[in-house]
């Protein structure tokens, strides 16, 4: 039995299998690969794309998705071991995971950080607890990484460049401003998968405070080395955009200020000019732009960029449906692939 | 590609097609007309009948409905163009509509007025934005009109009078009291469709403050003229009920006080006697009574009226299931009909 | 047409039919017994197991479950007759039940007590109103009893002891501490079904304040007499556990303090030692332990008990899926059974 917690746990061949399978599902929507099967979608945080695409993906392959929102329309869950549960939590992850495993064939989990203590959040406790106690495959629907988004993103790039081999492409992950301090999940994921695919990857951010967690910086370095690509950090907007084939934007809060966002806010406010606009895109080598969505227009990217043919964010979002069907099909029907 | 935003956009033949199709679905619940298809149900406001009937209607024809509540279990959406999204909204309608269109075959929207500024609400921005940016058919599940309710209502009358031709029937839309100032959607819709069907329509309301928006008053006049029926406004309860074949009740807030309901409340309180009761129904020509539901008993209509054989509100509610299946089937399989 | 409101309304043969059918569904998950059918799941209170198991059970037999949360994503409902609905409720149970009956083939209801006045709550008004006004079978998903849990519990015992005949087993329902004053539903149900099955049943609770409602105490006495078992009340932990084959734990608030829980709390706090632990389980005759879940670990039962092979709570939870499929199948396809 395999989980789909992070792409880094999977081989490049395994990931390319998922991407190829996703292309097949994009060409042929309906099938019976998951006939009579079921998946529980646990949302500790809200969702539109993720929920819709998983729910429909299951349906289109003959399965049924049950949507649960613990703490809202289900009981709040305890994740610590050995604790006397005299607080707000009514049920322990051990029972939740075992009982759900007795009902469904897969469990998918969205659990954002609590945004209080990064040392705590970086342990990804909720996801890992499900993976530990569930007796069925567990899928990451975004925690501190977002591997389904990674696959959708890479599939869009493969489609765009008409090749499964993305080596040699110049890829820029650019930080952008957002009024709130956001999760680093998609940024961690973008670094991870872009380097994994062997691209020449630049992490563009305002200053060293916006570097990502050492785990993901380390993966990026390891991946670049293994795949024959490169990984660079830059704070220079012009130099980063110059000649880029891919610009991927994401906003996140600076980790040294984690949970103390009031202190980070004044710094963040100084970098609104990181917005992706036409002038910056003009520096690229006819590059494409994408974003995981939701995106605040004219804050992270201008209307002109969003409405340009270079923007493939909607295509990437659509691909969520197809890659997730590939993940579900593979976990159930080809557990030998990883 | 067609939308189903308002009955006024459709021909009478198109509407009669939908009604006839609905009768067929009422006789034969299950089919595969929408096999493998999907519809997103976006609820900006709560629902029971609408959600249940759309969800089941999709299921009974082989499709799947995804229920989304933006702002609750999905991201809040921006509808203004060109704005810098630095407020509460996290995602623009352009992306929402395009991404949903890439997942589903139809999008249905419930979006009540904001009840602040009628000049703003009467533009029906949410629905129209979906219709503009979606690349799949959009269905109105109640905004400032409620066309699905119109079809269910007319189907119940056609069944009751055993004829598809309702011309010559005396139809009274009566305002009733409600402790809150409610949406005019169903009132607008009742006027629109009753005149469209060529009935002799009276709008009975306490005074001129309770007239409906000029758009719908104008449609009613135009429709009556075109169909050979009539349209009258009255503030006289006895005269309005006299000889009626149909009494349809609805409460709404007086538009001149829109968003300033505290000032309207004392006036509204004076008209509690507009309640539909047995004495009033006795004035009709053995008329039927209906209401879109939910209905506050003994406020809008008495128990005696609600529990009488003349009340066809439950039948009308049931018809929601059948007419909505007709709408979905027609939009997908007969896009030439309108 | 039959409802499934309480096991006490059903014959022992009828219940054994449901249990046998559940075993069949456990062996063969998929079927078309409910093809094209539908069930409305009305949750006035949150749920995880119940919702998931009903939703999946419907799906696995070809049906569709619509999940509604009145007052959250549907209108608040009035249950009193003859009232002028000028308060918060927007719709009367009569219309809700009739309209839902026109859409779906079954209605399932979860409605916990309001915890203000037990004399009011013990009338089970919400469930009984649905049963009265619905024209389709109604299923109790937990109100002041929890008959689906009863079946799942008994099926787990039948599996554990490899016999459908549980007579002669010593069964202890033990009260346990919980920081909140909980519903007596599962305790009422455990007494009811354990005595019905002819076991030798002990109700172990701290003192006479924790006795259950006279209706369920009376059923337990009647059932024990009819089935040739026994029913005893005890406040002696050691004596109750001694030689037990089954320990079933549940916490509840003392009924004399109903709605006045602040006054009950100090008393309840004195009985934390009712926790199910290894020392107590060692007194049993190799007995099994179960609980309806959710369970607060190390408050109601220790980790050691929960993680021991004697704990069959997860098995009981899984059985919810199977017994509920048996209930739905029987209500629709074998209405002669009761």
From TrEMBL, chains A, B, C:
What's the short name of a Pfam family annotated to this entry?
OTCace
Q: Which InterPro entries match?
A: ArgF, Asp/Orn_carbamoyltranf_P-bd, Asp/Orn_carbamoylTrfase, Asp/Orn_carbamoylTrfase_sf, Asp_carbamoyltransf_Asp/Orn-bd
Q: Name one GO biological process term.
A: citrulline biosynthetic process
Source organism of the structure:
Arenimonas maotaiensis
* Catalytic reaction list: N(2)-acetyl-L-ornithine + carbamoyl phosphate = N(2)-acetyl-L-citrulline + phosphate + H(+)
For this entry, the protein name equals N-acetylornithine carbamoyltransferase
**Ranges of residues in domain Aspartate/ornithine carbamoyltransferase Asp/Orn-binding:** 184-330
> Where would you find this protein in the cell?
Cytoplasm
Gene from which this protein is expressed? argF'
């Amino acid at each position: 039995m395999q989980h789909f917690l992070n792409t880094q746990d999977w081989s490049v061949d395994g990931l390319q299998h998922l991407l190829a399978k996703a292309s097949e599902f994009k060409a042929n929507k309906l099938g019976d690969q998951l006939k009579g099967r079921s998946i529980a979608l646990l949302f500790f945080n809200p969702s539109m794309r993720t929920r819709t695409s998983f729910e429909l993906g299951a349906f289109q392959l003959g399965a049924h998705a049950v949507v649960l929102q613990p703490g809202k329309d289900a009981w709040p869950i305890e994740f610590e071991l050995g604790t006397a549960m005299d607080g707000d939590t009514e049920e322990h992850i051990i029972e939740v995971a075992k009982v759900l495993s007795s009902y469904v064939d897969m469990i998918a989990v969205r659990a954002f950080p609590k945004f209080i203590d990064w040392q705590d959040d970086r342990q990804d406790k909720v996801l890992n607890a499900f993976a530990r106690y569930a007796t069925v495959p567990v899928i990451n629907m975004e925690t501190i990484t977002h591997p389904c988004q990674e696959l959708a993103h890479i599939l869009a790039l493969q489609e765009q460049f008409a090749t499964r081999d993305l080596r040699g492409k110049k890829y820029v992950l650019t930080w952008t401003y957002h009024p709130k301090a956001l999760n680093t999940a998609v940024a961690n994921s973008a670094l991870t998968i872009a380097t994994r695919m062997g691209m020449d990857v630049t992490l563009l951010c305002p200053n060293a405070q916006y570097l990502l967690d050492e785990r993901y910086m380390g993966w990026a370095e390891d991946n670049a080395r293994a795949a024959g690509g490169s990984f660079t950090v830059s704070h220079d907007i012009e130099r980063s955009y110059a000649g880029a084939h891919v610009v991927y934007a994401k906003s996140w809060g600076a980790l040294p200020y984690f949970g103390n966002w009031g202190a980070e806010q004044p710094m963040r406010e100084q970098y609104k000019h990181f917005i992706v606009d036409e002038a910056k895109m003009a520096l690229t080598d006819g590059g494409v732009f994408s974003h995981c969505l939701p995106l605040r227009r004219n804050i992270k990217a201008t209307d002109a960029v969003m409405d340009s043919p270079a923007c493939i964010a909607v295509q990437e979002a659509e691909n969520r449906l197809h890659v997730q069907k590939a993940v579900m099909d593979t976990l159930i029907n080809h557990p030998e692939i990883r």
